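Letters spell out the chain; backbone shape is given numerically. Both lines appear below:
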Amino acid sequence: MRKSVVFSSLIVLAFASCEKPNVTVNTGQPTPPYLVSGVHDISIINGSSISMNMPITVQYSDSAQESVALSLSALPNGIVMDTTIITQGVPTFSTNFIFYDTTQAGATVGVFPMTLTATGSKTGARIFNFNMRIMPQPSYTANMFGPYHLCSNYCASGNYTDSVYNDASMINKIWFNNFGNYGINIYGKVNSSFTITIPSQTVNGYTVSGYGYLSSSSSYYLYFSNIQVIHNSASNSCSVNMYH
């Protein structure tokens, strides 16, 4: 009788040792069906011809697939976005938001809160915040202003004088009083490499365009190696040198 009791006890212990523990698992929020990465603050120098990029990846994560559409809140005045980018797809997909300042005077300076909205066809909208900083363009024209007493135009003989002054309404825009000794008042735009671009403009029968540069950031020598001049149906390619 005693052996029977001992054997029964061993069976109970064996079954007890095989039972699984009661573990509570906290699953929390369900895994989102997709993840959005790449949203970050953007900084743009106003009036700059350089674009700024924000590459975005919509990564498949869990659950059933769905189409995801991307959209932005209203852009600051003067800023535009490349309209050829991908704004909708089925994860995983990537795109690149490209921003430009296309204004003549430069977009308004400031910090502008922005949102990127990702809208799933089944799960609805998710919002991602970032800032767009529009920074003022530095001046590149400080050493360009004033009279130029020794100027020459290889399309004409002799020396002449000219003067350069600032445009009061737009940074890095300069004016020439007597460009090329044609007696015309035209403007140019200066960029960070001290290149001077003269957009095509017609004044007193002369159509002038081209580019040049300041010989260095601390020099007083302007050199235009390729100036197109059209006058009385005749077209010439000229070089213009200007010394203070």
Remarks:
- Confidence is low (pLDDT under 50) at residues 1-28.
- The chain has two domains: 34-135, 146-243.
